[in-house]
Amino acid sequence: MKTKIIASECCAGLFPQNTLSGFLYCLEQDIDGIEFDVHLSRDEHVVVQHDYVLNRRITRDVSGNWLEKPGLPLCQLTLNELKKYDVGRYSPASREEKTYPDYNPVDGQVIPTLAEFVASYGDYGAHSELWVELKTTPYQRDISANPKTLLKAVLDIVKRVQLAKRTMLLAFEWDLLVAAKNTCPDIRTDFLTINPEFIIATYKRTGLVDPDQLYGKFNPKQHEDSVPRAIKAAGGDGWGPYVNDVTKEEVTAAQKLGLEVNLWGVESSAQGMRHALSLEANSITLARPDLLKDKLALMK
């Protein structure tokens, strides 16, 4: 089985995360897949960015100053307003700069749109798959776009440029992926999961949350307490567990059901890559796809 290499956040370990510079690099290197997160601007453009709000550690204003605190939610800003910010480097001593010490700053990079990405894809005659994560959460509806509106906008774009068959949709809100498959059977879907205790801890400031909300109509509890069985029942193509939440036996069981298993959160260290490869999943998402590509080449 060939292990697919997926570039996390458009190769965030080498370029500013979720930027056009990283996306173009991935196209040039013919990386198997390019993963990035999408939101809706206030005027309903699909924009590429990880956080729901402007991240002060990667965002500078028109004067070139780092934001002193997290900015407004993306869904409250128009595309023109978002384009005024520079996201071409990580702020000094930030978590991102420490995590990605070998990245290349590219000053002048602005928040890109999905439309710009697919236009570049066509110009390159690329083969890389687009791994598009729908960034929504039932726990923060006040700062995130309407999920159904975001889904429709994404599907309209990939169908218009005939890239549905080369697109993998990812989401933690499973009902969105079920709706996507019903609307566009050609598109593939990857059902993301993470330890429920992490979800509870993440949102503890907003009050008690129910992790089962993410599963929608296909709660694993109704499918023999099996996440893969629930995903299979939902018509999914893949299961995307956090790499440290899954065992090799669970990976194998999911594959026997006909699901792809796509690991995320993989560290680009030798130990991190070795562990991910030992699970024998179908694909591995990491910030330095070049390192995994070299490692796999040496293993042939």
Q: How would you characterize the overall build of this protein?
A:
By secondary structure, the chain is α/β, with parallel strands linked by helices. The protein has one domain: TIM Barrel, CATH 3.20.20. The protein contains 11 helices and 9 strands. The protein has helices at 20-28, 79-82, 95-99, 114-124, 147-160, 174-183, 196-202, 227-233, 248-256, 270-278, 289-299; strands at residues 4-7, 33-40, 46-48, 129-134, 167-171, 188-193, 238-241, 260-266, 283-286. Strands 1-2-4-5-6-7-8-9 form an 8-stranded parallel barrel, surrounded by 7 helices. Helix 5 (147-160) links the parallel strand 4 and strand 5. It is globular. It starts with a strand and ends with a helix. The model has no long low-confidence stretch (mean pLDDT 96).
